[in-house]
């Protein structure tokens, strides 16, 4: 042994056995804690499933007697409660969710691609990028009622920029799809003629002279005026009565709206409700899409850029196809939340449930399933309580059906991309 070498000290056998016993004891303790943690997780999961099963069983027991064709084919009725249905609310929820998906999905996915794939290099833009990212994360936890108030201000009233909305008065700008006319009754009370007008400022007019009007079948016809003070007898011929109007007869403004009727502001329409729900789910879609894009292997991007592809070509042909399953998962979760939201709809559309049809045009009001369930559940009549439980079952079935379709499409896209 050289003089500079230090002598090796051996660990006594007693210390080695003591360390071995300590390690063995520590291992047993960690395994025991792991088993206890596993048992606790299983118990929490079973309790959650049991509570969910109990709630579903209670709802099914309470609402099974109301599951009939009337529930799916009829509308809400105060007089015939037994035959009330939810068809307008189903159509309204589908219309609102279509607007919500059309607005939120492209905007959310595009924002996620910009924030994740096109990160800036300058100091100011990096700060701005981080500021936007933090606010998106914070918006995901904002209560939905706040979004309802935001939608009421932005979409329903549009800050009153186009004029204050008042009852039975037109304000704002009508851009397309509206035909205005004054409806006037003839001497035959069953026949009404229409006088077309380009303005909706005057709500009522009075007939002062003859002229050309539109008949019941939208054909042009000439009307005559009968003045009771002139001494002329009231016409008795039925054909002449249909073409004669009493002098001073009032005509009220009527508006025929096509399905593409569009105006500003949106007022209490399903379009405003869908855009409000888009604000609710937008942070969820952005965050989920960002996580899906982060999961794409950096080597794929580097290989694409190394072959001469631009940044956009890499995103379009490599990153987005690989991230589609994760993006669709986020979209499924977001739309599942949107279809069950009631608070923003109550703020934007109100609690109107007495509607016999679905939306007829873009600016039409709508009833949604959560609002209808909320209204039925708050009624004192036991029939409405049962109808609310049956409506919850229908809502769950529709939600599960849409989620199943979306999950199938996600797996189909994922299997195609793997091939």
TrEMBL record:
Segments for region (Disordered): 226-247
Residue ranges of every copy of the ABC transmembrane type-1 domain listed in the record: 90-406
Keyword Aminoacyl-tRNA synthetase: no
Biased amino acid composition, Basic and acidic residues: 226-238
Chain coiled-coil ranges: none
Biological processes, Gene Ontology terms: transmembrane transport
GO cellular component: a single term: plasma membrane
Pfam families in UniProt: BPD_transp_1
Spans traversing the lipid bilayer: 36-61, 90-115, 136-159, 269-288, 318-339, 387-409
Family per similarity comment: Belongs to the binding-protein-dependent transport system permease family.
Descriptive protein name: Phosphate transport system permease protein PstA
Species the sequence originates in: Stieleria bergensis
């Amino acid at each position: 042994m050289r003089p500079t070498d230090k002598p090796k000290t051996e660990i006594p056998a007693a210390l080695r056995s003591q360390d071995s016993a300590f390690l063995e004891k520590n291992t047993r303790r960690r395994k025991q804690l792991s088993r206890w943690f596993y048992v606790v997780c299983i118990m929490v999961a079973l309790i959650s499933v049991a509570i969910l099963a109990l709630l579903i069983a209670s709802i099914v027991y309470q609402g099974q007697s109301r599951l009939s064709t009337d529930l799916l084919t009829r509308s809400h009725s105060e007089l015939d409660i037994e035959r009330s249905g939810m068809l307008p609310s189903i159509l309204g929820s589908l219309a609102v969710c279509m607007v919500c998906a059309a607005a939120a999905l492209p905007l959310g996915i595009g924002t996620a691609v910009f924030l994740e794939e096109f990160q800036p290099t300058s100091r100011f833009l990096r700060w701005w990028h981080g500021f936007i990212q933090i606010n998106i994360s914070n918006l995901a936890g904002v209560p939905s009622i706040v979004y309802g108030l935001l939608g009421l201000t932005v979409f329903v009233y549009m800050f009153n920029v186009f004029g204050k909305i008042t009852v039975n008065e037109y304000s704002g700008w009508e851009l397309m799809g509206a035909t205005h006319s004054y409806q006037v009754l003839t001497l035959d009370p069953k026949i009404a003629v229409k006088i077309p007008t380009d303005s909706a400022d005057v709500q009522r007019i009075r007939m002062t002279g003859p002229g050309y009007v539109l008949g019941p079948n939208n054909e042009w016809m000439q009307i005559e005026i009968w003045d009771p003070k002139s001494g002329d007898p009231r016409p008795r011929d039925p054909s002449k009565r249909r073409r004669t109007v009493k002098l001073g007869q009032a005509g009220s403004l009527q508006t025929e709206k096509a399905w593409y009727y569009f105006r500003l502001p949106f007022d209490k329409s399903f379009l405003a409700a869908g855009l409000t729900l888009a604000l609710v789910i937008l942070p969820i879609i952005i965050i989920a899409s960002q996580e899906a894009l982060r999961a794409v292997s950096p080597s794929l991007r580097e290989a694409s850029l190394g072959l001469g592809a631009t940044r956009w070509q890499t995103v379009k042909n490599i990153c987005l196809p690989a991230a589609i399953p994760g993006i669709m998962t986020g979209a499924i979760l977001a739309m599942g939340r949107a279809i069950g939201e009631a608070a923003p709809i109550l703020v934007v559309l109100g609690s109107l449930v007495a509607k016999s049809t679905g939306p007829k045009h873009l600016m039409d009001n709508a009833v949604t399933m959560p609002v209808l369930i909320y209204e039925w559940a708050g009624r004192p009549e036991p029939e409405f309580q049962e109808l609310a439980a049956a409506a919850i079952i229908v809502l769950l079935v529709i939600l599960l059906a849409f989620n199943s379709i979306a999950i199938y499409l996600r797996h189909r896209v994922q299997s195609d991309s793997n091939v």
